[in-house]
Amino acid sequence: MATLSPSPSAPAITQNPDIRYLGRLLGDVIRAYGGEKLYKQTEYIRSASVDRARGLQGADLTDSGLDALDLDDTLNFTRGFMLFSMLANLAEDRQGVAAEPGADVASAVARLESHGIDKDAVLGLLAHSLMVPVLTAHPTEVRRKSMIDHKNRIADLMHLKDAGRIETAEGENLDEAIFRQIALLWQTRPLRREKLFVADEIDNVLAYFRDTFLPVLPALYARWERVLGARPQSFLRVGSWIGGDRDGNPFVQAPQLEFALKRGCQAAIAYYLDALHALGAELSLSTELAHVPQAVLDLADASGDASPSRKDEPYRRALSGIYARLAATCTALTGGQPARPSSLKGDAYATPQEFRRDLVTVAQGLASEGDGALATGGALGRLIRAVETFGFHLATLDMRQNSAVHERVVAELLKAAGVEADYLALDEYARIALLRRELASNRPLGSRFSAYGEETTSELAIVHAAATAHRLYGPACITHYIISKAESVSDMLEVSILLKEAGLWQAGVDGAPPQAAIMAIPLFETIADLEAAPAIMTAYFGLPEIAGVVKARGHQEVMIGYSDSNKDGGYITSTWSLYKASQALEPVFADAGAAMQLFHGRGGAVGRGGGSAFAAIQAQPRGSVQGRIRITEQGEMIAAKFGSRDVAMTNLEAMTSATLLASLEPEGVSDRDAARFSAAMDALSKNAFAAYRDLVYGTEGFKEFFRQLTPIQEISGLKIGSRPASRTKSNAIEDLRAIPWVFSWAQARVMLPGWYGVGQALAQFEDKALLADMGQHWSFLKSALANLEMVLAKSDLGIAARYLPLVEDQAAGEAMFGRIREGWQQAHDGLLAATGQSRLLEKNPALDASIRLRLPYIEPLNLLQVELLKRHRAGEDDPRIKEGIELSINAIATALRNSG
């Protein structure tokens, strides 16, 4: 692959050597397996596109080479460009392009110490912290797991190459092994033929928990112990929505929740059993050579291991007994035998804490001699940390459902129980009063003698399954119940009513406060929801029974949604509304005596909260983090951030270090400047909101324009998730899920949700000096503009214009596209003025090079996609056309990376 020459205003791109190497091997694979003709066609199209990107004279679209492709060639060419983007992603991840300076705990601690904040203060914060990446099944991962697996094998082989190896451990030539994996990629079908089921999503995400998080988190904690000089509690954990998120997904019911938890338990215990087996081989200490404390001898004697060969090896016998008990635990909790059964008999562990106690006994025995080196780290230390972090449940599973469903279910329960004939007709005050009366009693509303509708039956089964899970796996397996479209206090109380049906809410007796085993959490999504959030939480905390529960727990979570707030109000209004809501909630929580835990519902694209998590967390208002934060990780970002152990460590370090800084570092803006900046943002947000709403919701025919310009119809048919693309059968933008809304605009290279309205707001803002001051010195706006800059750089209105012929009403389409083009130019010019740059990404050369390297490989895919869409919508029924569209969607998403 050649080095790209500069445009008149941009420096030359020095290509990553890994991209050159892998790109050359891919070319060899295409020649060997696709034939010389395909190789030459691909190379011609690539060269022509690169020349256009260089701005070479005569390099225009008239001879792109695409017209010479028949349908079979088109499929193969698209596959080749998709694979190049996948390999480029791998190369960039290996070179740390995504890693940000200072985004590690050691750097964060040093930065805090420069402010006079010592390690004791950091440890004090971590003692009550909780940081959780929560993996969700939101469907923007278009690649099959098989493709990702081959990519990861190539990454492993490249690590061997880094170490100077020329052969694999099996004696295979390393270059040939990498070539073979790329050849396997070339011959692996990239598209799913069948729609994903929830069980598939559970198994897909389980691979990340098993292969990445289980080994990575203990290793990170060991690193942080060295940095901090002490052992912090397990503050960084993992969560999941997959199997518990029912909002708009009728395929998630009690069996899916049970399956998700069971599979997580199986994976966690299998990991522990493997670790114990390895420890048994390692800890060969003999009583003839080492002093062994009585507690370890007792464990060894209780194990039942009477092997003569291990008579003088109490640690091995103790571990044999622990293994036997854990194997029995596996059978008790999952109903299955472990892969390596024990020949000994043992009682199942009642809790993971009981299992940990036995491991600690072994560790204390090892620490009793010498300098303690045998106990303070190593495999045993990592296993103890893993048990603390993952328990028997592996990942905490969130439950989620829409408030409208809760409302209907509670109404049916109340009616069947003879309590209230028409709950839905009650106003908010009457609902609250009624729900509080019910929560004051442990008498359930449901009865096995009553006949309920399908919805109520399903929801009751879910909460009973959650209660069973608590008894099996421990209360940490499910701790959060998210309420979508939460708009009132009654929306939150209704969840407590449902939890009470399964004993997960217990009314207080004899003056004791109630107990809630699962926390009801409102999700504030739209701009209006975010504005109402402080008043709703004030009223909620004002209820004595709720105040008692929250005080006993010590904290309360609120979830804030990036996707729907963006679809509702545009990028800058969404971002600012989220900031203001977080800021306004902080005193509400302080008055209630509760630590605030914000759950950020971020996606991959800028229009859904994407961008640098390190910068975004630091940009949160002071006082809103407090060491407690949860963040969703969705779709293609799961593989991008956690697809390999090295990349996962980088991203988890960034999340942790940013949380420390946001919680402890002093505010960098004075109160006076904060007031000025806030007033300016209010004005910017107001104008951006007006421009965005006028286009998207105020322009007649805009929804038809969107559905015809972008491949939204075709995306809705992709088999990339179990959830429908729209909440209802309506084609209104309001009812469309935010994910396909953002994803579709990205495919057509408009990326409208990530920038529209900002340009008009910047153009109307008169005090340019103030704007530049804010952009330079205020972390909030600096982060927002950085994300805006990235999405502007990835958009291409010239390519987007090629989609215009797909719009039936050409006059209206041209007019709307003209407004979009003008808005983009205003956003571009306003951003450069605010950041003091002469071109986009001038101050971020690594990202600039990454994006400009990819653009020549995306343009032909867009041009092919347009032609295929025309033929598909004209009624051509050749199955290769549909396959080509889906392949192009896959390839463009892979090249753009954070596009959904």
Automatic annotation (TrEMBL):
Organism domain of life: Bacteria
SUPFAM superfamilies in the record: Phosphoenolpyruvate/pyruvate domain
EC number: 4.1.1.31
Segments crossing the lipid bilayer: none
One cellular component term from this protein's GO annotations in UniProt: cytosol
GO terms, biological process: carbon fixation; oxaloacetate metabolic process; tricarboxylic acid cycle
MF terms (GO), sorted A to Z: magnesium ion binding; phosphoenolpyruvate carboxylase activity
Enzymatic reactions: oxaloacetate + phosphate = phosphoenolpyruvate + hydrogencarbonate
A family per Pfam: PEPcase
Active-site residues, Swiss-Prot/TrEMBL: 138, 567
Coiled coil stretches, renumbered: none
Enzyme class: lyase
Cofactor requirements of the protein: Mg(2+)
Keywords noted in UniProt: Carbon dioxide fixation, Lyase, Magnesium, Pyruvate
PANTHER family per record: PHOSPHOENOLPYRUVATE CARBOXYLASE (PTHR30523:SF6)
Function as written in the Swiss-Prot or TrEMBL entry: Forms oxaloacetate, a four-carbon dicarboxylic acid source for the tricarboxylic acid cycle.
Assembly mode: Homotetramer.
Family statement: Belongs to the PEPCase type 1 family.
Protein's name in the database: Phosphoenolpyruvate carboxylase
Protein's organism: Sphingobium cupriresistens LL01
Organism classification: Bacteria, Pseudomonadati, Pseudomonadota, Alphaproteobacteria, Sphingomonadales
Designated gene of the protein: ppc
